[in-house]
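worker-03 picked up job from queue 'complexes'. Input manifest follows; two sequence lines, order preserved.
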Amino acid sequence: MTAASAEEGDGRGRVALAVSGLSVSYGNVVAVHDATFQVAEGDACAITGPNGNGKSSILMGITGMVRRRGAVEIFGAPAPNGDVRWAARKGLTLVPERRQLYPDLSATDNIILGCYSWTRSMGKARRSDSFGRAVDLFPELKPHLKQAAGTLSGGQQQMVAIARGLAADPKILAVDEPCLGLAETVARRVYDVLARIHDSGTTLIVVEEAPKRALTLCNRRVEVRNGVASGVAGAA
Amino acid sequence: MKFGNLVIAGLVTGSIYAVFAVCVAVWYRVSNILNLAVGDFAMVGALGVDNLYRVKGLPLWAAIVTTLAVVGVFSYLYDQVVLRIALDGRRQMEGIVVTFFFTFALSFFIDGVAKMLFGTDVHAAPALWNGASLSWGSLHLERAGLLVLVCAVIIGGAFWVYIRYTLGGKAMEASGENAIGARIAGIDTRRYRRLIFVGTAVIAAIFGIVESPITGYTYLSGATISLTGFLAAAYGGFRKPGRALVAGLAIGVLEALLGGYVSAEYGDTVLYAILAALVLAWPRGLGFESAVTQ
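worker-03 finished. Artifact:
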């Protein structure tokens, strides 16, 4: 909400996401307290910090998955509280922790449901660039597209989750713990893909417990401790 | 041609089971709740039309439209008030209470109201297609039976196309599979729960109207219909409408054959014994294991 926000984001572009005074609580437990930070368009921003300190809750609050206090602006437009669809239409899409796929549906169906935020037509979704690009980004998924998502390996499921996020045609992709429980080689592959998504112009927000891996990719970092966020600029 | 006629009669009965099984399975797929009141909506359809047409003297079309509108509005309000408080409120309920209790209670409630409004006698909506039964050689099919079959094919086919080929159908499935994952994709899971609940209630009512001239309904008929639909849906693991449909048809045919060849009196007993034995012998193939683990 602050007027000075545009300068803080590296001076590279307009502010993609502005968060001010964000708090998230579950009952009496405060998970995030008064977080304020900005992400400029084209940035790759890491949100780091120990587990259980409220990193995921920040993403949940921003995308509207949980109720929040405080203001969130996506490309300058104030986001209504708790409206995931609005955020997705404005260009902010979440790839959630533990992937949250639909286990009995095929990988293709999982991915194509990412298009639901902008269309109700199966034909339009199938022919869309965003769906095509999302599938093409993961050639290793090709032989498994008809398989039920619940039967895929952890790495494949993560790729399906990212592809579903891309099918929504996001300008800002928020990825929560993309490498949780993955083997090192698979984790590296996931980060390769995230780098390619970033290179194509999508703004990235990555929540990572391990800052080391995140900072190979990210040029900005928000550190979260005990639910309090502090921006660390130019951490690349 | 006793066999042929028994199969035809079985297919008609089976298509009734199949439609209710599909209604149970589709709503379970989206909400993870078993709709034990689905048969009661059929009963309200049949007895409501009968009451408005025969007793109140409304034209048949007006009786049908009014009855369906009442069922639609009532099921909408039930979702908006009861299910919303139970499932979407601050203190969300979980477990067996949600899976069974609310629709079970609804079933008793509807039965009670129906007893007051329609009495305890057997009634039926007037036949929509009058005339002698249709015959091919020695095979016979009542017109009402053909109507039931046609309705079943249309309803089953519509659900199949919806789930298989539309993004809305996929979103509906996703709502039941993973509510959090569905919300992330921007899917309004409550809307689908409401849509399918109201939709299946109205479908059940239509089916009651079409089918009641064959069997006749009392205010207690709903529970039996729900139970058979429930049983057939169980053979599809409650989650596979296609399998539920086939199971419903198979149960109908089996029932007719047992009634015709074994014993009219004990046919049902033998049927349920066979069904139980099938579950014990082949639980995974019938979807029972997944029904438990999910």
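worker-03 released lock.
The first strand of chain B starts at residue 134 and ends at 136.
The longest helix of chain B spans residues 2-31.
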